[in-house]
Design a protein that fits this description.
The chain is α+β, with helices and mostly antiparallel strands and 325 residues long. A hairpin with a 2-residue loop joins strand 3 and strand 4. The longest helix has 14 residues. The termini are far apart.
């Protein structure tokens, strides 16, 4: 429940707002969540108390909501919907509860908003727009990320991808994201381009030539190809992690990323069947998706084999990945 006067979220069922002392009407307490709109309020029902919607994770002003069952099915789609639900293929949404703060989201990601919330473009000039177009082209993100500010709620479009909330400050100097992961963040988060520091990572890394890097204090929401339960987190203290393939979806910008031979010699690397591996050195964190498409089981050899989208995909594929071709 929200106070209709100050907009603060209130737990329990008090008669007066503990923040501003305003009287809380019985209607607001019994029908759901209310937020102020100019001289009135918006009451949201069948959302927070909906038994089919489960709160999965929260951080800052962001909350991940998961629809447990797809209730709007037809007889022809009911069988598919049933097995999707059994295999954790569910629709998920991000609710952003604003209390005078601001957020940035991917263009077109907003589903609805309520309360005193204003939307504006983050483009300040023609030069700013051109810079954002280039940044969006090489990172796989939208060129323009709308800014939402005020007091109220902003709900993002549903997705079948898995949603993660990360505290950017916990990643030190910044978090580097795999292409297409960004969904939303606090407005105070700074965006920059992380480019490869040497030719080896550009030729063989499989991560593209450029990645989006987020830094500062605040939270971000990521669209992950796998659930958090399957992610492995490495915390490096002046150490090294080697990964055979582009399974790292996010890593600290403080880490030095290179591509190296799996063995000391090219012959040894070739005979081992591993070839080149992605190497992360230094102090920081890595989020790795070990079950992501990239390593499949070969029924003939009964052993793992690399698919085409791996650390040896080459320069042309790497550039194409960066430019989203």
């Amino acid at each position: 429940m929200f106070c209709s006067k100050c907009g603060k979220e209130i737990s329990g069922s008090p008669k007066f707002c503990p923040f501003c002392g305003a009287s809380l009407s019985a209607d607001a307490k019994s029908t759901g969540s209310s937020v102020p709109v100019s001289n009135g309020t918006v009451t949201i029902s069948n959302l927070f108390e909906n038994k089919n919607i489960e709160k999965k994770e929260s951080g800052g002003c962001f909350t991940i909501l998961e629809h447990q069952n797809d209730l709007s099915v037809t007889p022809s789609s009911s069988l598919t919907s049933y097995f999707m639900q059994q295999m954790n293929v569910k629709k998920r949404q991000v609710l952003c509860q604003l209390e005078g703060n601001s957020i940035k989201i991917q263009a077109g990601a907003m589903q609805w908003m309520s309360g005193n919330v204003q939307m504006e473009s983050d483009v300040k000039s023609v030069g700013s727009f051109l810079g954002k177009v280039v940044k969006g082209a090489v990172t796989g993100e939208s060129a323009v990320k709308p800014l939402y500010s005020g007091t109220g709620n902003v709900m993002l479009e549903p997705t079948y991808r898995y949603l993660l909330i990360e505290n950017v400050a916990e990643w030190g100097s910044g978090i580097v994201l795999d292409d297409g992961l960004f969904l939303a963040c606090d407005a105070g988060i700074q965006e920059s381009i992380s480019k490869r520091t040497n030719i080896s990572s550009a030729l063989l890394g499989g991560e593209g030539l450029f990645n989006l890097c987020l830094s500062g204090n605040g939270y971000c929401v990521l669209e992950s190809p796998v659930p958090r339960e399957e992610l492995i987190e490495f915390n490096l203290d002046n150490s090294v992690v080697k990964i055979d393939g582009n399974m790292a979806i996010a890593w600290s910008s403080s880490l030095n990323f290179t591509v190296e031979k799996a063995a000391n010699s090219l012959i040894g690397s070739g005979l081992s069947g591993e070839g080149f591996v992605n190497v992360y050195r230094g102090t920081g964190k890595i989020l790795m998706a070990p079950t992501i498409t990239g390593t499949v089981h070969d029924s003939v050899s009964a052993g793992p084999t690399q698919t085409e989208a791996n650390s040896s995909q080459g320069l042309v594929s790497s550039i194409a990945s960066s430019l989203n071709l």
